[in-house]
Amino acid sequence: MFKILEKKALNEQVTRMVIDAPLIAKKAEPGQFIILRIDEYGERIPLTIADYNREDGTVTIIFQEVGKTTKQLGALNEGDALLDFVGPLGMATEYDRDLKRAAVIGGGLGTAIAYPQIKKLASMGVETDAIIGFRNKNLVILEDEIKEHASNLFVTTDDGSYSHKGFVTDVLKDQIESGVKYDLVVAIGPLVMMKFVSKLTKQYGIKTVVSMNPVMIDGTGMCGGCRITVDGKTKFACVDGPDFDGHQVDFDEAIRRSAMYKDKERDAEHYCQLEGMNNG
Amino acid sequence: MANMSKIKVPMPEQDPQVRNKQFQEVALGYTEDMAVEEATRCLNCKHKPCIKGCPVSVQIPEFISLVANKDFEGAYKKITETNSLPAICGRVCPQETQCEQVCVRAIKGESVGIGRLERFVADWMMKNKNKEEVQHTESVEKKSKKVAVIGSGPAGLTCAGDLAKMGYQVTIFEAFHTPGGVLMYGIPEFRLPKELVQAEIDQVRKLGVDIKTNIVVGKTIDFNDLKEAGYEAIFIGSGAGLPGFLGIEGENLNGVYSANEFLTRVNLMKAYKFPEYDTPVKLAKNVAVVGGGNVAMDAARSAKRLGAEHVYIVYRRSEKELPARLEEVHHAKEEGIEFRLLNNPVRILGTEDGYVKGMECIKMELGEPDASGRRRPVPVQGSEFVLDVGTVIVAIGQSPNPLIKKTVPELETQKWGGIIADEKTGATNIPGVFAGGDAVTGAATVILAMGAGKESAKAIDDYLSKKDSNSQV
Ligand SMILES: Cc1cc2nc3c(=O)[nH]c(=O)nc-3n(C[C@H](O)[C@H](O)[C@H](O)COP(=O)(O)OP(=O)(O)OC[C@H]3O[C@@H](n4cnc5c(N)ncnc54)[C@H](O)[C@@H]3O)c2cc1C
Ligand SMILES: Cc1cc2nc3c(=O)[nH]c(=O)nc-3n(C[C@H](O)[C@H](O)[C@H](O)COP(=O)(O)OP(=O)(O)OC[C@H]3O[C@@H](n4cnc5c(N)ncnc54)[C@H](O)[C@@H]3O)c2cc1C
Ligand code: SF4
Ligand code: SF4
Ligand code: FES
User: Fold this and answer.
1) ipTM given for this complex
2) pLDDT tens digits for chain A (280 residues)?
3) Mutating which of B182, B249, B278, B438 best tests the A interface, going by the most A Cβ atoms within 10 A?
4) Is the dihedral of CA A218, A273, B396, B347 positive or negative?
5) Which atom of ligand 3 is nearest to the CA of B90?
6) Cα radius of gyration (chain B)
7) Ligand 5 atom nearest residue A223's Cα
8) Which residues from B are below 8 Å from A267, CB to CB?
9) B106 lines ligand 4 (CB under 6 A)
10) Where exactly are the structural domains of chain A?
11) pTM, whole model, 2 decimals?
12) What CATH number matches the domain at A101-260, 1.20.1200.10, 3.30.420.10, 3.40.50.80, 1.10.260.40?
């Protein structure tokens, strides 16, 4: 069992938890993730390692309540424990030693996944601009934490209720147009956001890394459920990624695949009603 | 005088039209009377050809004569001298190509039902006895040496169990949250009840083996960590979990699964009990399973049970070449699985929003024999047609997972990923590191994996004893 040591709400839907997981803390690197299962009946869900502390043996996760498992997770408290917690999975992010300036873009919850990257780049001495975007003011997370590490922080809200009104791509474009030279852009957030950031940076020829989050089961390369197409080739996001070259990812396919377990209306029409089965 | 009936005592089974709607076990098992009757068909041959057909040399005539004398407990002891997982082997061993193939009774009629008897004995024990009392009568001297076993499939479990019996301190490291390997996540409940696998795993635990789940070797810990923690030998039984895909157009459409994903959702995550369990599995009314092995049969029969109307097995060779066990093919047919033999998928067709709407296949005919001696299928020009399916399950084979190799680059492997290991001992090119089962051979069988685990356990004992005496000089 893996104990929840701390719990803190970052906004209405987003929670941070510190988990007691010494073996994982020992090996974790930015860019990697864990898979957890709350109880015997639970689904295995992947969450990014938002932070870790090797001495204390802890791993921090930040999650948004979007469905059954994340809601159930949000209902747990300090002192409760998770049945399964496995990792660190995926490849750690590798950055070029001679990067000078980078922009890290976080969209919504993607900001939490981007946070360890901002920290890492800053610690390498890279001048790092953080551009984080949210739907509205109430959803803004990690502003103070990111300020601590980033050289510049830009916050956008879709409705203008806080800071810049507009999308993260607008700010990125302004920056580039005004002459800022980025050697690298890291974009983490909804697929559509990553698609448009990649489209933009391609025009300017700026190398772009995106973090792909397809549905996963094992996280060790065994099921192929997490496959995506990169440069025309099939890759397993859990072992080959989750980071990939944004200019080579087939986003449209990834967007279609991410809908697979989404729309419930579709189910009634096209799929067998598994719910009705009785297996004694 | 032996019972000279030409056929085996028939196995009671659930009715096909009942069982293809639920996940309870298909074969119900012999009663005591049936078992005794079947046991009397054994001729107790002096040269015991059957034993040579068994990869772990179960003392077949001996245990069968104990069954004939109704000493079921004695029979169990006899079997478990060499086979620690009889309830599993009795169910899933391809007996028809192993012990039963060389049985003398098979010359005129059917062989003795060795597998069925093995299963009976194991089930009888589980029902009637606390196995603990039986198994560890002889106490072994505990050794201080620690051995690490990677993977808890049949290879790892057997190796660990045997080493524990010799007195070693054994820890199994398993990536999944549940031990058992393919026995848990691959082979479905209706063929191998999970409760039973659990019971066999508990036996291994009772021998003193510590099973640590949620540990991915190569990620959570690596070989250096194991060395530092004092493990003096390592056995790799990490299986062949990497799924193969066809490489045809449309394979990333929604509704295309690898058999691994589909079976893991259904077995390990219990999607067949959704929504009691949280993991879903989506299936269209019509399902195509590509492939002709045991994995394909399991996927097809599971899909049928989940409520699919038409389930097709699409296989490019003919019935004779189907690699699946005969019994499984027979069961699949009884349950209404439709075989589309000599058909090869060409591409998968999708709707605008990315869901499978059909699979284009081409008819094949058998040409000249190829390197494997089987007649090579060649496409019949212009015979393309579209199979009306909304789900495609790809079951064309697995290869070893490269995860461990990635963190231990000096470990020598074949081009296709198999770990290179000595055939007899499982020794790899790294001293103290042994390997066996599917990780070495590629996808094979439970009993071969167990056999490999067994041989490696002996070799590890040998290695550690020698190491000891060397260091004393
Ligand atoms: C490598 C990786 C890292 C991730 N890191 C984080 C993280 O740090 N914090 C976080 O909050 N989430 C993260 N996610 C997404 C997270 O795994 C999903 O939100 C979670 O699985 C949803 O589970 P659920 O049971 O609550 O929702 P479900 O009931 O399963 O689904 C609810 C909704 O979420 C969608 N969904 C399901 N799985 C995913 C997924 N993998 N990605 C996106 N949407 C999904 C569904 O389509 C549905 O609309 C990550 C995913 C991956 C693959
Ligand atoms: C659907 C299906 C049906 C089958 N039917 C039959 C049948 O009827 N009869 C038969 O004889 N055989 C059958 N087989 C084949 C048989 O199951 C395998 O040959 C056998 O299980 C191989 O055993 P193993 O111990 O080598 O590997 P596995 O059973 O694959 O076990 C390997 C274990 O290692 C773990 N692992 C892998 N990598 C790591 C790592 N890095 N760190 C920690 N743990 C790791 C895995 O999670 C897994 O639990 C079937 C296989 C499948 C998939
Ligand atoms: S273990 Fe398998 S091959 Fe050996 S006797 Fe039993 S059923 Fe036959
Ligand atoms: S070969 Fe057949 S008949 Fe002879 S001992 Fe073995 S099981 Fe019995
Ligand atoms: S999650 Fe199964 S292969 Fe990636």
Assistant:
1) 0.89
2) 999 999 999 988 899 999 999 999 999 999 999 999 999 989 999 999 999 999 999 999 999 998 889 999 999 999 999 999 998 999 998 888 889 999 999 999 999 999 999 999 999 999 999 999 999 898 999 989 999 999 999 999 988 888 888 899 999 998 999 999 999 999 999 999 999 999 999 999 999 999 999 999 999 999 999 999 999 999 999 999 899 999 999 999 999 988 877 654 344 334 443 333 333 3
3) B278
4) negative
5) 7
6) 23
7) 2
8) 282
9) no
10) 2-89, 101-260
11) 0.91
12) 3.40.50.80
